[in-house]
């Protein structure tokens, strides 16, 4: 079975695939044009996909030989799962192995914004150490405050657990379903969407993104948030309206924002949000640790090996 991998991945997955007898193609350059990428896809049986290439009706029509796709990601919003399922194409993903790393980044952003870390780092880089000033650009402490989690799955749970342990934060959440483990272990309280945005001191997004949730966090939401609220998004940039977020940050409607994902992504060079001192932006590095990426490599390989043996993928996004 031929596997096309569009970018180098940690060795563990490559070794597993080779040992299972799969024939691997990895292009010399990982900066393929769309046409070149499509050409590789047309000539393979299965794909191990790194990044957010779109897999929709149009793709599957152009590449009818593709029989399975293993994503090197937990998110699958770039795949039309309905179309893939209709065509009997399993879509594998990489849950769990990146939950710790991604929630670490959410925690890091929350703290960076609360203590104005990017602002101060920028000052130091500008050779502006400053004098001790009792009133200047003060941060806020998070002890005993309320963390609101939008989407309390595996990553949301890890974020909530860290906040509970580190700062004794109260946890509220809004989710499709109740998370009984979180309610029991973290004393997390299920609330409505409106209660979530009105009561959170830190609002952190950890849900899977669906197109109908596009710009869900917009002006009317930011308006209802607390003035001291920190907005954290490590899920997908599509969740927030970036122009509205900018306005809310400039007008002091909310305290600050920590973003590992932006809308659009990559962020535009002259996006005014980058000029703000109450913002910390990272370039979608949630899973960028050796441990998480090794885990993702292993899971993606496990998925393709199972498929090559005619078995169900162990980590699958299709319903
Ligand atoms: C994921 O795994 O979904 C990350 O966001 C990278 O795409």
From TrEMBL:
Residues annotated as domain D-isomer specific 2-hydroxyacid dehydrogenase catalytic: 5-318
Residue intervals of the D-isomer specific 2-hydroxyacid dehydrogenase NAD-binding domain: 109-286
Keyword Oxidoreductase: yes
InterPro entries: D-isomer_2-hydroxyacid_DH (IPR050223), D-isomer_2_OHA_DH_cat_dom (IPR006139), D-isomer_DH_CS1 (IPR029752), D-isomer_DH_NAD-bd (IPR006140), NAD(P)-bd_dom_sf (IPR036291)
Keywords on record: NAD, Oxidoreductase
Pfam families: 2-Hacid_dh, 2-Hacid_dh_C
Entry annotated with the keyword Lyase: no
PANTHER family from the UniProt entry: 2-HYDROXYACID DEHYDROGENASE YGL185C-RELATED, 2-HYDROXYACID DEHYDROGENASE-RELATED
Family stated for the protein in its record: Belongs to the D-isomer specific 2-hydroxyacid dehydrogenase family.
Protein name: D-glycerate dehydrogenase
Native source species: Chryseobacterium formosus
Lineage of source species: Bacteria, Pseudomonadati, Bacteroidota, Flavobacteriia, Flavobacteriales
